[in-house]
Structures are given as C-alpha cells and as structure tokens.
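thread: overnight batch results

M.L. [08:02]
morning all. the overnight job finished for the chain we discussed friday. pasting input first so we're all looking at the same thing
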Amino acid sequence: MGYEVRTSVFEGPFDLLLHLILRQEVDLWEVSLAPIVDGYLTELERMHALDLELATEFLLIAATLIELKTRRLLPSSSDLELDEELLRFEERDLLLARLLECKTFKDASSTIQSMIARASLSVPRLAGPEEPFKSMVPDPLERVRLLALRDAARRALMPRPTEVVDTEHIAPIRASVAEAIVEVLARVPAGRSMQFRDLVADSSTRLDVIVQFLAVLELFKQGLLDLEQIENFGTLSVRRLVSDDYALDEASVADWDEPATPPSEARS
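M.L. [08:03]
and the structure it wrote out:
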C-alpha cells in the first residue's frame, strides 16, 4: 500500500497526488512539506521493516519539492526577470517528468511481478509424446546431423550472384541528327512551309520523331527555319527562310552525333 499524504490542499495516496499534479488540478507550489515529512517519519516509526520502494519514491519527490521551494524563498535584490520566470516553469516540468518516470517504473515492476506470478502457476511439458502417438508424425530431424544443418543454413544465407543478360548480340539503335538536318533541308524548300506532322509522317519509331524534332530546333537556332504554333499543343508549322546555298554551321551539327565522354575519361 502506498504512502498516504495529508495536507491542506490534498489528502490521499502519493499516486493520486501525482495524477492530480499531472492534470494540474493541484497547485504544486501550495503543497506544504512539513505535514508530508512529519507523516512520513511517523509512518517509518510504525513500520517494522523499511519499504525501499516507498522510501525511494518519497525521497525523490520530497527532495525536488524542497529544492524548488528553497529557491523561491531565497531573497532577491531585484524582481524576477523573464528568464528566471521561465526557469521556474522548467523546474516544474522537470519535477513532473521525474514523477512520471517514477510512476512508469513502478507500473512496469507491477506488471512484471504479475507476469511472474502467473508464470509460476504453470509447468512446461518436458516429456515427449506418448508411445501410441510417436509413430503418427515422423520426426523431420531424425537422420539430420548438426553439421548438415549448419551447411544448409550457410548455403541459404550465402549471397547469390546476380544474373547478367548478355546484350552484345543486340545491334544498337543509331540515329543521326546531322542526317536528319540534311533530310529536313531537302524536304522543305526555300520560302515554303510544312507542318511538322507531315515532316515526320514517314518516321516508323518514336526515336526517329525525336531526332527530326532536334534537327528542326537546330535549324531554327541557326536561323534557317521559322517555327509557328498558334496555341498550346497545336499544329507546329515549319517554314524555310534561306536559299539552298546558305552556309550551314557544320561544327554545331557535328556536335549532335559525337558520343558523350564518360566522366572518368573527362577527369583524366
């Protein structure tokens, strides 16, 4: 049974005091320490043996309360500032945390004690099945050696090699932007227009369409083509601006078909 507290603002067990403080139904600063200490000393004289758990719980809470009340009674040359006011709230939170921690361990010990009491009422079965039932279910480990189990576990836990699919026999799909530029210039005469949809009508794959679009963008960048699209996602019109003898920037065109340099080679 827990220690009973009797003060002007509270009367009851310590567990209930903790519960009320946590719910802020009892003002922490109005709890008088003198009746609590006197009652505790009287309880010690009445008890034949010291309850270590009860004494620890009482000393923890009482020591914290004494420390907090002592700080409030110390004389001060000036009024409390904001930092000191906040410090008092932090001290109160610290006390609540200690009380909650104490209650948590007390509840855990009670739960473990009840589990031990229930476990003491049962006895595990140490004998095997009775003779009439032994032959009904075969023993899966009858002829299995311990070393064989170890080897099987080692094989099961051993990382398996990742299967690699050989793709060397697959021919890479190559598409040349430079060739697409030549084709666009050949299909769109100077001063004429063509819809991009008609320009890629003969393309069989999506990659061919992408290459044709890159070629159109490159020619637009060099000023050979003009692009017109009235609305979003609408029809794209391509118009040739210059004659066939216009000098094409072949260096920019060649950059499209150069393979990308791997990062390792670029750093070297």
